Amino acid sequence: MNARRAPKGRLRLATRLAGRELRGGLKGFRIFLACLALGVAAIAAIGTVRASIETGLAESGAVLLGGDAQMEFTYRFATEIEKRWMRDAATATSEIVDFRSMAVRGDGDSVERALTQVKGVDDAYPLTGKVSLDPAMDLATALAGTADHPGAVMERVLMDRLGLAPGDPFRLGTGTFILMAALTGEPDSASAGFSLGPRTLVLRPDLQGSGLLAAGTLFSTKYRLRLPDGTDLETLKTEATARFSGAGMRWRDARNGAPGIAQFVERLSSFLVLVGLSGLAVGGIGVSSAVSSYLSGKTGVIATLRTLGAERRLIFMIYFLQIAALSVLGIAIGLVIGAGVPLLLAPIITAQLPIPAAFALYPMPLFEAALYGALTALIFTLAPLSRLDDIRAAALFRDAFGAAHKWPRPAMIAVIAALLAALIGLAALFSGAWKLTLITAGGLLFALCLLALCATCMAWAARHARARVRRAPALRWALAAIGGRGSDAVPVVLSLGLGLSVLAAVGQIDGNLRGAIARDLPDEAPSYFFVDIQKDQMDGFTARVDGDKGVRRMQSAPMLRGVITRINDRPAAEVAGEHWVVRGDRGITYAGSMPDGTKITAGTWWADDYSGPPQISFAAQEAEEMGLHLGDTMAVNILGREVEATITSFREVDFSTAGMGFVMAMNEAALTGAPHSFIATVYADETAEAPLLRDLAKAYPNITAIRVRDAIERVSTLLNGLAGAISYGALATLVTGFLVLIGAAASGSGARRTEAAILKTLGATRARILWSFALRAGLLGAAAGVVALAAGLTGGWAVMHFIMESDFEVIWPSAIAIIAGGIVATLLAALGFAWAPLQARPAGVLRARA
């Protein structure tokens, strides 16, 4: 064999020799392929579902929005000038008013009340899409009602809660309506965002005289536009924003019909992709172990090639090409599964989604998954491949691969580090979540280092402890196997431990998300929020509440809503970015003297009789997050009028109390002239809640009561759904970890066969040998579980603290299950491959080793 060949000749020869070796089949590479394919499939499937939903949202943007464009105003209707501009720009317009209220059925002791989200529509609604009703009828017919009362439709869950059926009357405020049908489909429901109550649809004119749309009450108006074909949405948006954004107008168009859902899908899928990458990292351990095991079996072949004069580069290329070909096969299998499963399950997934999804083959998610798979395969195979340099011709007479240097050479370490940096950078780029990506990568590296240290220390401890264990031979044999040369302690602890680390972190995140609402509730939460209390109703409202012995406490405050438009004469979004305070309208109150319990952290509160230029007291934590300082000016649009005020103090606002909290408070003279209502929180004994609500609703039908526990349940349902999605995303990691564990057990079956043969020759029974195998597996599983728990707790805390910005507590049932799972998984894998070594005849095994 000519050792010195031109690069092209060397490549041809390496390709030919690699092909010959691959003709022997995939024996030894099944786990390699399974680990790589499973990780790639998980990422490809998540990306395909995300792309399908995003495409569905984009294609159905006008239907989801209810028109080609929408102009929204807070707590006011559009002026005649604004309406004229809409009519000039559009071929058709539709006016909608949206607010919360109480739907009431019956009277006296049999009265039933429930919170509902009311949508008052006009005859043009919906401009796009179709409303579905049961029994089937036209929406106009349903809302026309009867000769006695106007009609309404509502979601079935609200009908069931109130005990209503079509033909039954109910009240909204002081107005009476006839329920005509159940609302089963609302084309623009996805654009409405989160609501605390089920939907009720009525005609906008029928709300006149109900007392629900008085000056200062909390409602929003939305004007949907159907635009002429060929309209440039960006140009129209620019014109509308320039004319009306200073009046509190918010623009949305069909390019992003349901931005809240789109953002949620993007963030959740990004998180799940990172969970999938964690699973791919777990699979990488299996890939590395499989390559090491394969190359160990090729020591004789490699030594023969070296004897024939093959240079190191040629040998490296031969096996690199083999691994590359198998990696391409594994990635291809993963892409087929990852793209195929969502397509096969598309009808089921679509039926479960409340939004449209266009399932198809999307190249970008598949390219992203393939790139992740290729980089992972490279990172985890270069280290064992680099050890080929240490094999000499003398390896024909000894196990040179097992004796080779464990660490790659410095140049190879630099290459692996560069590939790892590229993988992390691409993950951050594709996901758009730099902080979460870095935390995930740091957590995985921390876990790997911790597990490698644990495995090394365990092997050292086992070598020193076995001599002291004389009366327990099975334990001594187990310790000897763990600390001996060629021990599988490192691959087992790494593969199982990394999988359990990811699972432990996900388990802690899952548990903390599910318990966030209950854990963060204060010791004493209010029974009700009452909103839309008119100023002339406050005396009577207060008298009824204060006169109830079952009421422990009441808080009330004037309530307005406003949109922060400018900070220091710059657009608010330029200063505060995407902070939640500037993304929509926010609650504002006013006060003369400083309210009891207010804690000023910086600046000073205004004088009781202050009547100068408007001043603002801003929530301290939110001000720090937005980069605000004392003396900054802020323009807030309230009911179409812009109020410019100076920040003169920061104060503590604790939103976790479930009580009353305002980001912004202004001096009394700045806002008392604006139409507004009051809100109140009432803390009452459970027995007093129903009579209190009944009396207040009877006396003041326009007031809306929001039961705090009902609101918490709605939020809790969303969090449970998020936690469930994360748990399912971790399933691939768990399966991959178990596959890697099986691979490690399979690769060590030869060593166990020899060990069993020697022990049998020395007189050991099968039961005692099996017990030693079980002890070894249990010790390794327990070590991996304990270290994984430490790494998982750290990772879970980091995600909850830095990403979710929530408190963290250890979920002990999940934590204990991780350790138990590590022990059980290792036992199952080890004992599953122990039967064949125990059945082998010692003579045949030892003769083969001679």
Automatic annotation (TrEMBL):
Entry membrane topology: Multi-pass membrane protein
Domain of life: Bacteria
Protein known as: Drug:proton antiporter
Keyword tags: Cell membrane, Membrane, Transmembrane, Transmembrane helix
Domain ABC3 transporter permease C-terminal intervals: 275-388, 731-835
Pfam families: FtsX (PF02687)
UniProt keyword Membrane present: yes
Protein's UniProt keywords contain Cell membrane: yes
Entries under PANTHER family matching the protein: INNER MEMBRANE PROTEIN, MEMBRANE COMPONENT OF PREDICTED ABC SUPERFAMILY METABOLITE UPTAKE TRANSPORTER
Chain ranges passing through the membrane: 271-295, 316-349, 369-388, 409-430, 436-461, 489-509, 725-748, 769-791, 811-838
Single GO cellular component term: plasma membrane
Organism from which the protein derives: Litorivita pollutaquae
InterPro entries reported for this sequence: ABC3_permease_C, Membrane_comp_ABC_pdt
Subcellular location(s) per record: Cell membrane
Main location as per UniProt: membrane
